[in-house]
Amino acid sequence: MTAIIERLTPHELVEVWPGRRGWPQTIGALAVVEGAPLRGSDGDVALDRLLPAVGRVLAWPRFRQVLHEPGPGRGGPVWVDDGDLDLARHVTVVPVPTPGDDAALLATCARLYEAPLDPARPLWRVWVLPGLTDGRVGLLVVLHHALTDGAGALTAVGAVFDPEPAPPAAPWTTALRPPRPAPTNAELALDALRRRGHALRSIAAAATHPRGVAGAARQSRKALSGYDRHAPRTSLNQRVGRRRALHVARFDLDAVRAAAHAHATTVNDVLLAALAGGLHELLAARGELSPGLVLRASVPVAGPPEPGRTQNARTGMLVRLPVGEDDDERRLAAVVADTQERKRQPLDLGRSGVLSSPLVLRGAVALAARQRVSNIYLANLAGPPKPAWLAGARVLELLPLTNVVGNIGVSVAALSYAGRLAVTVTSDPELHPDVGVFVHGLERTVERLTAPYWPASSPRP
């Protein structure tokens, strides 16, 4: 029987190649939960209580597969079922050092997050983090970006949590098919030959139908219309190293929504205006702020995930950030005007053909440390609106994690959960040791924009 060959798609490959240049492309989430329901009689976290919940991610095939490099003449990387899958090897206990506060937790997560995932196993890990104040426990879930994007990760990892305190009793092995045999070297070589032939025929077809190629090119140019040729050059954009630092800002979701509604816009636009406010303070502190300075943020846009499958976003926006503007209201108004324009013509990398050309993508990754398309990155996701539970323990907080790549050394992810909005800033601490100034500016901007709309029952920050 001929083996099924699953080559990595171009938009999966573009997440793998940066790792070879020292930029592991991982994403993840940090859950902080009640500790007591997870502890055994000895007071330690009982992993046997957690494994059934964690094992639910295996319903998604990519979480059961390893990335295999076939070698010369056998084509590009393929997804192969892990024939020795052991869920327990993906879950490790790492105590958070004293005093177990927010700073200690984030420092521990940053240290774990910056390490590459083991390529011999499926590309995801879970760390259980006891030792937090008030007996709480952290759960850090990290997966490779080639498996999925943020929206797909939210769907897959969200299966770990329950909408009620009592978790289902089903074991994690339920309904998993046995691993498929890996393709042989001969099968890989034949498949590679067929794919090269298909690629050549596609090139010939494009040459005989130039109107379709020209139309895709026009779409890409139209999506980028109105921008200067390059994003401004600032100290933000320097070649990223291997170190990571994590900072978190927390907001009342109802207050942010109320502020967005009052300005006839979205939570995402409020966050973009907050990024501009944070960058205003950071560049002012560095002596780089100038009147009228406008930077660019890259914002992915994902479609609905397919059942049982993960995805990677292929559309997005490049949004102008009026960093040189001093007034919060005018800053938000400028962001709203720009995002409305961009939403009418998003940058669709799938339809433009960019993601169908591995050669173009390899070039983009090779030039990532010198790119001048974007200055900063923002991903915003909607999480569970009501409280969730992990193996009977209430989830107190959910924090998103994104990563940095190329010369984008500051990356921001936002996630709503149970009436709160968590914003996590990932940075290279060697390039940006003063990123706390940016985080403080982001917080202060949101606080000023939401001040008139705070619910009477909620404490002010």
TrEMBL record:
Residues 20-270 form the O-acyltransferase WSD1-like N-terminal domain. Pathway: Lipid metabolism; Glycerolipid metabolism; triacylglycerol biosynthesis. It catalyses: an acyl-CoA + a 1,2-diacyl-sn-glycerol = a triacyl-sn-glycerol + CoA. It comes from the Bacteria. It comes from Georgenia yuyongxinii. Its EC number is 2.3.1.20. Belongs to the long-chain O-acyltransferase family. Keywords: Acyltransferase, Glycerol metabolism, Lipid biosynthesis, Lipid metabolism, Transferase. One of its GO terms (biological process) is biological process involved in interaction with host. Residues 312-448 form the O-acyltransferase WSD1 C-terminal domain. One of its GO terms (cellular component) is plasma membrane. The keyword Lipid metabolism applies. This is diacylglycerol O-acyltransferase. Pfam families: WS_DGAT_C, WS_DGAT_cat. Gene3D superfamilies: Chloramphenicol acetyltransferase-like domain. GO terms for molecular function: diacylglycerol O-acyltransferase activity.
